[in-house]
Each structure stands twice: as C-alpha cells, then as structure tokens.
C-alpha cells in the first residue's frame, strides 16, 4: 500500500481485524507520507519504536495498531520535552503522561510528536523551534493552535489519531480550521497527570478526530480518574457504545454565532453556522429559542493568571531566556509581572463568577448553545497571532527601541501599582477597549474552559474552500449528549474527513 488509511481510526482497526491491512504496513505508509509532506505536522519521529510497536500490535485493543501522533506538549519518556520552545530544545522527558500511557495501552502505535505553539500559549500553528505548520486544506493558511500539528496530521491524511489539549480552545480552534471534530470535555474528564498544575484550571485533554466514534472511543480509552490529578473525574464508560441513544427531539437550543457578542464573526462564517444549525435542528426535532447571553470578557485577566505556571516551568532561566522565547510569550510574561497583583486577581475572580452565573443561567433555559468555533476562516500560517490588526505587541516585537521602552514602561507600572493596586486592572480594562481584537483571541472557545462545561467543534461546511466549525456548548457532565449532537450532524451532513477527500467552496 502506498498511502495511509483515509478513513477514521475505528475503521482502520476493523481493517486490521479482517486482515485487509497490517499495522506494520500501515506504519510504513504513514512514515512515507510524513516524509513526503510539506505541512510540517511533526516535530519528532521515532521510527524504530513505532515499527517495533506495529510488529507486536494487538489489534483486539480499541486502537490496536493505529499510528498515532502525540502533541509535543505531552510527555513521552525518552522523547524530546521541548514545550515547543528554544529554551528547552535539548530537554528529554523522563516520564510518560497518563494520557499517553492510556493511548498506548489502548494499542496505538506511537509515531512521534506533533507540532504546537510555544508552551501552548498562542492559538497559532508556528514556533521559533519548529517553524510553520500549514493547513492541509490550503498551504499558507494556519491550522490555528495550539494543537496545530495534530490537526494538520489528521486532516492531512498522515495519521488517523492524534492527541490534543484545550486550555482556551486549543482542540476546538484547530478542529474548526481543518474540518475535524474537536471535543473539549467537562473539566477533569481526562487526567492531566503526572504534572497537573492547579492553575489555570481550564486545561482539558483529548484528541483531534475524523469521526464522532473516534472521539467517543478515545474517551473509552483515556477518560477516568487518576490520583495524581485530584481534579480528574470518574468515567462511566460506554462512550462509544452509547452513541445515538439520547433523544434530541424537543431539546431547546439557542443559536448565537458570536456567543452573545463576545467577538466579531465574519458574515460568511455566521451564515454558514446558522445554516448548519438550522439543518441540525430540523434533522433532530430540537426547538430553537431566543436567549440573551451576556458574558464578561475575561481574556486579559485569564492570560495574566495563566502565566504563573509558565514562570514555574522556566524557573531561574527567566528573564535571561527572554530572547529565546516567542516575542508574544515574552511580552505576555513582562506584562503579567507588571499587571498581575492581588487586586487584578480579585477582579478576575469576580469576572469568573459572572461568567459562571451567565452560563448556568443559560443552561437553565436551553440544553445547547450553538456558536461559531472561530471568528473567520484560517488566517495566514506565518502570522504571529490570530489577530489580523497591528498592535503594541507588533511594535514590541519588531523594534529594539520599542521593546526597551515597553519594558521600561511596564517597570514603572509595577512600581506605581505598589501605591495604587487598582491601577493594573484599570489599564487592562482600558487595553480591552483600545485593542478589542487582541484580547478577544479565542473568546468564542475560552468561556467553556473558564466555566468547565463541555463544548464540541463540528465541521459545518466551507467558506472560500476553507473549513468552518460550528461549536455546540452544553451543561457540565453532559458530554454524551454532545457526542450525539455531533453524530446527528455526521449522519445528515457528513463531512470530508481529510483534506484530500473533498474540496468544497
């Protein structure tokens, strides 16, 4: 066979079990495809380990013999542990994460590490360490991030299975841009051990999937409590077996493409999402209702608080390592050190409670909220952020003088904040008004991370030949309902599961 499997992971396992293909043949085809690819989906390949695993693969297991990509922010003992950063380019992992251990116990063949944005801090598909990852639907366009390489590899026909992580949209954003299913479960659904930081309290692990059953089977393999992650949830199991068993008729749904106005959505994308939502409602017998949803914009405060774990990771390397970091990451760290204090944390927590109340109120009224996954189709692949407009970050990145002046100004803010603790929050509020696009990056997806409820990005067609994602949100612990919503779309409006399987406009 010359090319990797073009179906989903579950059908590949079926082919193995019928003897139509072998795991070793599949891996060899996968390796050839990766070497021939120009989308830069993998940062590291381990052909010897993968070939050994393929030879001994047990195809009776859920993902027995399936070649899998591992997002490079996950730890695999003996593999690079770079966090997609030049700072850790020589570091090697000494442990394997619980997620990866469960994927491998489920029979998957570990091919290598898929590219990510540095520390997963930006929703883009490039880094200084690995360069630019391209969208398989159109070279030169981004996959989004941070699970960039995983999305590119699965949508690009290289592997049928790849892990991802979603702390502010990092599974759903690239799924939306590449025409895949991206499920972010209820917070704690899949353990983050062995290094489960309590902050930011938003990260959910999962995968980039070609089909609903692939995502459900991934839950069967990976979901469930682990004592090294106290926030992890027990799993009821039967995720794949339960597909299609929930009655959707009569359930109430609100269609809010801009999610209550938290960010601006391109008209063509909004139209596509509304059309997909209409088709879903008609196919299932759900009932569309009006809903007022007023969500606070927590983006700036959320970013500030998140960077505490990055400082813990960098340790005494910071700030000497600033020149090795992506400019946006370094700028964010300087900004956070100047702006984040007890008063800023208090404001952030008050906004978080407002978000909790708004989302809880919404799900007392409706079962589902439908929104766009991304505000537009994929942006240029080499863009340093998903924000298309210039900002002060551009100046801080591109000019040495501006960079020095910017850091000096932040130093003054830090000093002034000692006397006026409320100053940073007022400046953040001003910045949110002055640069709304900058602080709204990922705003469509971020609220589900902050509140912890499940949300899924479902392929919803195309605009100008590029995929559009329809995001569906629901209440906590109703992950199985979201699988059935996605299944209803898959059955009535099936999507091309790889970029090579169909080009639409």
Structure description:
With 505 residues, this protein is an alpha/beta fold. Among the domains are: 9-246 and 483-501, Amidase signature (AS) domain (Amidase signature (AS) enzymes, Alpha-Beta Complex); 299-350 and 392-434, no CATH class. It is 40% helix and 12% strand. It has 17 helices and 13 strands. The protein has helices at residues 9-18, 23-36, 47-55, 98-105, 148-155, 172-178, 212-222, 267-284, 299-314, 327-339, 342-365, 392-398, 400-419, 423-434, 436-439, 443-451, 479-492, and strands at 42-45, 67-71, 109-114, 126-127, 131-132, 161-166, 181-184, 204-209, 252-255, 287-288, 368-372, 455-463, 466-473. An 11-stranded mixed beta sheet has the order 1-3-2-6-8-7-12-13-11-9-10, with helices on both faces. Strands 4-5 form a two-stranded antiparallel sheet. The longest helix is centred in the C-terminal third of the chain and has 24 residues, at 342-365.
């Amino acid at each position: 066979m010359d090319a990797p499997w073009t179906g989903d992971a579950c059908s590949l396992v079926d082919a193995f079990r019928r003897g139509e293909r072998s795991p070793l043949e599949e891996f060899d085809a996968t390796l050839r495809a990766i070497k021939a690819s120009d989308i830069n989906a993998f940062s590291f390949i381990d052909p010897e380990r993968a070939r050994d695993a393929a030879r001994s693969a047990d195809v009776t297991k859920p993902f027995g013999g399936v070649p899998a990509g591992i997002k490079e922010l996950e730890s695999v003992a003996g593999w690079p542990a770079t966090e997609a950063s030049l700072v850790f380019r020589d570091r090697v992992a000494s442990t394997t994460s619980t997620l990866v251990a469960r994927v491998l116990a489920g029979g998957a063949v570990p091919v290598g590490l898929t590219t990510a944005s540095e520390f997963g801090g930006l929703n883009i598909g490039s880094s200084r360490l690995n360069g630019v990852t391209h969208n398989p639907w159109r070279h030169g366009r981004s996959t989004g991030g941070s699970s960039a390489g995983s999305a590119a590899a699965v949508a690009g026909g290289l592997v049928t299975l790849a892990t991802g992580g979603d702390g502010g949209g990092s599974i759903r954003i690239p799924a939306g841009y590449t025409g895949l299913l991206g499920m972010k479960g209820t917070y704690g659904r899949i353990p983050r051990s062995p290094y489960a930081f309590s902050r930011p309290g938003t990260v959910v692990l999962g995968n980039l999937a070609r089909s609903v059953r692939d995502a459900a089977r991934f839950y069967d393999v990976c979901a469930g409590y682990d004592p090294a992650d106290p926030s992890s949830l027990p799993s009821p199991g039967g995720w794949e077996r339960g597909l299609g068993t929930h009655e959707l008729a009569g359930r109430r749904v609100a269609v809010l493409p801009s999610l209550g106005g938290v960010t601006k959505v391109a008209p063509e994308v909004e139209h596509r999402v509304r059309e997909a939502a209409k088709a879903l409602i008609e196919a299932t017998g759900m009932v569309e209702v009006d809903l007022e949803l007023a969500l606070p914009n927590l983006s700036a405060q959320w970013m500030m608080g998140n960077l505490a774990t990055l400082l813990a990771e960098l340790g005494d390397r910071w700030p000497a390592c600033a020149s090795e970091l992506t400019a946006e990451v370094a700028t964010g760290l300087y900004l956070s050190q100047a702006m984040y204090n007890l008063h800023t944390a208090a404001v952030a927590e008050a906004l978080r409670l407002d978000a909790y109340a708004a989302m809880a109120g919404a799900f007392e009224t409706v079962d589902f909220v439908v929104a766009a996954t991304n505000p537009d189709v994929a942006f240029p692949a080499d863009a340093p952020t998903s924000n298309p407009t210039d900002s002060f970050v551009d100046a801080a990145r591109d000019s040495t003088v501006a960079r020095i002046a910017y850091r000096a100004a932040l130093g003054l803010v830090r000093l002034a904040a000692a006397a006026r603790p409320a100053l940073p929050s007022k400046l953040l509020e001003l910045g949110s008004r002055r640069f709304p696009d900058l602080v709204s990056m990922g705003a469509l997806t971020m609220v589900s991370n902050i509140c912890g409820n499940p949300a899924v990005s479902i392929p919803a067609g195309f605009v100008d030949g590029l995929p559009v994602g329809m995001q569906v949100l629901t209440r906590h612990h109703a992950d199985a309902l979201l699988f059935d919503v996605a299944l209803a779309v898959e059955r009535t409006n099936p999507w091309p599961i790889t970029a090579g399987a169909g080009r639409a406009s």
